[in-house]
Design a protein that fits this description.
CATH superfamily of the largest domain: Alanine racemase
Helix content: 25-40%
Shape: elongated
CATH class of the largest domain: Alpha Beta
GO molecular function: D-serine ammonia-lyase activity
Distance between the termini: 33 Å
Strand content: 15-25%
Number of domains: 2
Enzyme class: lyase
Number of helices: 12
CATH architecture of the largest domain: Alpha-Beta Barrel
Strand order of the largest sheet: 2-9-8-7-6-5-4-3
InterPro entries: Ala_racemase_N, D-amino_acid_metab_enzyme, D-ser_dehydrat-like_dom, D-ser_dehydrat-like_sf, PLP-binding_barrel
EC number: 4.3.1.27
Radius of gyration: 22 Å
CATH topology of the largest domain: TIM Barrel
Order of helices and strands: EHEHEHEHEHEHEHEHEHEEHEEEHEHEE
Structural class: alpha/beta
Keywords: Lyase
């Protein structure tokens, strides 16, 4: 199990000395989340490949790998290059490949990176094999499968699956396997519904793999995953690996889905009360949408947290108080229901608070770095990767 001793935490600063707004990571919570997911994957008998797009942070990824992850998933080739530079070699670039990005993928593979790429079309597959033939490179390519109509991929029973596979296989690429992402799992919030979408994801991807094998084509990897389905799956027969990302921090959307408690949310935004509109029952803080992001993912769920749940500086939730509105650099803190007549005395100017985000990936993306803290509240600064 990953422990506090494996994670660098040393600094002259503490939470109450930070400039605000600031993105802060509660490391004990993060390590709990990492171990929870890794233990579940081990129990289900599959490899685990965390999606590091959530944190885009080397220190976080190394904690995931130390807990037993077999490799990482990335959303940009810039991420792939950064994590490879820091010693991670087994990397899946889980976004459909286009010809313009093949030179960057080639450069990584030539440097020794075990980079896998993804396609879901004949046109993309043809570009991959043509480029590989031109430069003498055998790309490892996985086919993306659509198991829920959420986004990209080929339906498991679509004729296009075999068409794409034959282009890759006959063209000299390595047909590495199939992968899917049940993004629609975010739309459910009961154990029964989550278990059903997890089984739909598993069965669909396994069905695609079976069709390839029955056609005499290789399919060594069957990769599935989202945070809700990874935690809800009853079994993963036929699956070789799972991918999940937001579990490392969790967020309010995941809380509403039902896969975590607010006590497991590891990322928050430290903010300062800078003013009041007493007659409206508002406290004004210096974390607006530029800090929290514009993501209002809880708006369509059973509980709307506005732009985030308000917590004391120690991380304890203040029930009923949310960031109900946000401008670019101003956040509006208010009580749900009736305005709080004691808002000024309850939240004096200068009060430090922490706001739990709707979507950890989007909120993290607003900041160039995290401030990570352990039980002693001393901070380490962990850089966060930006751009593409």
């Amino acid at each position: 199990m990953t422990s506090m001793h494996n994670v660098p935490l040393a600094s002259l600063q503490t939470l109450d000395t930070l400039d605000t707004p600031a993105a802060v990571i509660d490391v004990p919570r993060m390590l709990h989340n990492i171990q929870r997911m890794q233990s579940r994957m081990t129990a289900l008998g599959v490899s685990f490949r965390p999606h590091v797009k959530t944190s885009k942070c080397v220190e976080v990824a190394h904690a995931q790998l130390a807990a037993g992850a077999a490799g990482v998933t990335v959303s940009t080739l810039k991420e792939a290059a950064r994590f490879f530079d820091d010693g991670v070699t087994d990397i899946l670039y889980a976004v459909g490949m286009v010809a313009s990005k093949l030179p960057a993928a080639l450069a990584l593979r030539r440097r020794g990176c075990d980079l896998k790429i993804v396609t879901d079309s004949v046109a993309s597959a043809q570009a991959i094999v043509a480029f590989g033939a031109e430069f003498g490179e055998t790309f490892d390519v996985w086919i993306e499968i659509d198991t829920d109509g959420h986004r990209s991929g080929i339906r498991p029973d679509d004729d296009a699956l075999l068409d794409v596979a034959r282009v890759l296989h006959d063209g000299g690429a390595t047909l590495g396997g199939v992968m899917t992402h049940a993004g629609s799992s975010y739309d459910f919030d009961t154990p029964e519904a989550l278990a059903a979408i997890a089984e739909q994801e598993r069965a669909g991807c396994v069905r695609a793999a079976t069709r390839l094998r029955d056609a005499g084509l290789p399919c060594p990897v069957v990769s599935v995953g989202s945070t809700p389905t990874a935690l809800a799956a009853a079994h993963l027969d036929g699956v070789t690996e799972v991918r999940a990302g937001v579990y490392v921090f969790f967020d309010l959307v995941m809380h509403n889905v039902g896969v975590c408690t607010t006590d497991e949310l590891a990322l928050s935004v430290l903010t300062t009360v800078i003013g009041h509109q007493a007659e409206k029952g508002w406290a004004i803080v210096d974390a607006g949408w530029m800090a929290m992001s514009r993501d209002r993912g809880t708006q369509k769920q059973k509980r709307d947290f506005g732009y985030g749940q308000v917590c004391r500086i120690d991380g304890s939730v203040m029930p009923g108080y949310v960031l109900s509105g946000a401008n670019q650099e101003h956040g509006i803190l208010s009580r749900e229901g009736e305005p709080d007549p004691d808002i000024v005395t309850r939240f004096p100017i200068g009060t430090l608070l922490r706001i739990l985000p709707n979507h950890a990936c989007a909120t993290g993306a607003q900041f160039p770095e995290y401030h990570a803290f352990g039980p002693d509240r001393e901070l380490a600064t962990w850089p966060r990767l930006h751009g593409w």
